[in-house]
Each structure stands twice: as C-alpha cells, then as structure tokens.
Amino acid sequence: ALTIDETDDDVMVTINYLINQGLLEVVTENDEYYLTEIPNLIGSETE
C-alpha cells in the first residue's frame, strides 16, 4: 500500500474483491498472488 500510495484498507478491499470474483488466487502463505486471466491475455492482440 505504501509503494502505490494507497491506504491498507483500500488495497485489502481490492484484493478481496478480485479473490471473490475469481480473478486473483492466493498462491502461498507468504502473500504471493496469481492473476488468473493473465494466461488468456498473453499473446493476444487487441482489435
């Protein structure tokens, strides 16, 4: 939160929203996260 100049609460709300929507998964207990849609976006082009 400090790195991106946001409050801890704002960051946690965003993380919890992304997890609840299935867009973010907790990978390890050390706060590592995985954005689930990234593999679908790699190698694609916009129209």
UniProtKB/TrEMBL annotation:
Protein name: Uncharacterized protein
Source organism of the structure: Criibacterium bergeronii
